[in-house]
Amino acid sequence: MSLDLTLLSLVPGVGKLIAVLPQILQIATALIAAASAIAAILPHPAQLDGWIGTARKIVDWLALNVGHATPAATAANSTRAPRSATGVPKSALALVIAGGLAAALTLGLSACAAPETPQQTVFDMRAAYDAAVLVPMTHYAALPTCATGVSATAAAPCKSASVLASLVKADTSAKAALDAAEDMVRNQPTLDATAAIAAATDAISAAEAIVTTYNIQ
């Protein structure tokens, strides 16, 4: 029986998290890079007072300039008088901070919106399959078998041997199709993977239909 008790099947939501992890990392990388650039041109937080000083500290936090990671050149400027007292408008500093971070966030989101590669498509399909089919199937397989003539209820859940057999069969087909699609996009990237991806999609849909029909959770 091809029930994989992996981390993805034991912890609900992990598959979905892994599916969006590349997008999260893209946005985080863009924000860190922008914050680092902004921190390099702004006065040290000690030179700024009020809310603009707080905003400057947030920029340092986003840039990972914490503790001993603070750039030496920036730290050296901390002995100067508060910049707000020298006549530099707080609005100008706020514009630099807000504009830079907004631009970085926009770039990060734009990168996430870029068309998926075949490799990413197959990866997302597998992660979604683990969450939508493998997790509930694993839970269902762990239930006691229903006695002859007895149906499962919310108060007394049990598994049907015939339903489980159908699930296992569908799971085997879906995994084979996913493996074939993954092999193509990884090892034969120059070939058109449309047909392989479509076959995997159909196999996954068949498994999901069983989960939905029998309300397996």
How would you explain this protein's 3D organization?
The structure is a single chain. The protein has 217 residues and is mostly helical. The chain folds into two domains: 20-112, no CATH class; 116-213. The chain contains eight helices and no strands. Helix 2 packs antiparallel against helix 5 (90-112), helix 3 (50-62) runs parallel beside helix 5 (90-112) and helix 7 (161-187) runs antiparallel to helix 8 (194-213). It starts with 6 loop residues before the first helix and ends with a helix. Mean pLDDT is 74; it is low at 1-12 and 72-86.
The structure class reads: mainly alpha
Poorly predicted tracts of residues: 1-12, 72-86
Number of strands: 0
Total helical segments: 8
Question: In which range does the helix fraction lie?
Answer: 55-70%
How much β-strand is present in the residues? under 5%
The mean pLDDT is 74
* Silhouette: elongated
Biggest sheet details: none
Total domain modules: 2
Q: Kindly report how far apart the N and C termini lie.
A: 19 Å
| SSE arrangement, N to C | HHHHHHHH
Radius of gyration: 27 Å
Oligomer status: single chain
Concise description?
This protein has 217 residues and is an all-alpha fold. The chain has two domains: 20-112, no CATH class; 116-213.
Per-chain topology:
Blueprint: H1 7-10, H2 14-41, H3 50-62, H4 72-76, H5 90-112, H6 118-141, H7 161-187, H8 194-213
Helix pairs in contact: 2-3, 2-5, 2-6, 3-5, 6-7, 6-8, 7-8
